[in-house]
Amino acid sequence: MKAAIGLLRPLDAAQRSAARLHSMGYLAAFAPVTQIVASGAQPPGGAFDAILATSARAFAFLSDEDRARFASTRLFAVGEATLAAARSSGLAGAGVDALEAHELEQLLIAQAPPGARLLYLAARDRKPRLERALAAAGIRVEIVEIYRAEARPAWSADEARAVCDCAAVLHYSHRSAGLGLELAARAGFGEGFRALPHICLSSDVAAPLVNAGARTVGVAGEPRERALFAALQAEMERKGKPTV
Fold this sequence. Notes:
The chain is built from 10 helices and 11 strands. The longest helix is centred in the C-terminal third of the chain and has 15 residues, at 225-239. The protein folds into 2 domains: 4-33 and 152-239, Rossmann fold, CATH 3.40.50; 37-150, 3-Layer(aba) Sandwich (Rossmann fold), CATH 3.40.50.10090. The protein has 244 residues and is α/β, with parallel strands linked by helices. The mean pLDDT is 90. Strands 3-8-7-4-5-6 form a 6-stranded mixed β-sheet. A 5-stranded parallel β-sheet has the order 2-1-9-10-11, with helices on both faces.
């Protein structure tokens, strides 16, 4: 029987992760702790020298008018999924290859011309490292918080049962790890959730679980999904849990 791995990400991102799990011989158990909703914010008028985006969701809530307006604006995207979403939205006419977050920061600091006007299509809940680094370098960035990840009040009975039966749970953010603990407690299996193996993208992501007394908390060797999956595989092999 295949082992099931818990995914607490919003469904769009979780489905991409599930495809990779399936290729490794695992099942995926979906139990999102947040749902993505529009904030209602839209970009201000005028021209921009470049658009920054760190998530594929950055383009989902743009108006048709803004998609047309930014069709030929230079784009800096973090991750292949973000670049693909930009292309699907018609916003990568002058785009660049997908970058890692630290590469984007370094590239902009090195190349942004004085007085450049940059638009950052961002989530309301995010780490502010990018904008702080650019501000410290004197680069002007106008931030539009175009969407937010809204915390769900509870898991359904099926979702809670699926997580409870998992062989391990994957965690991608500090916030979602904390929300997972809360939703498990509300569903009545907080102790059982803490007893599961938890594999985290970074030590920052792992912190809520460690602080809550989770028994097994693994951390990826680097903050990338391929490293997260490698850490998962190592944990499953250590536990002697076959994929099939």
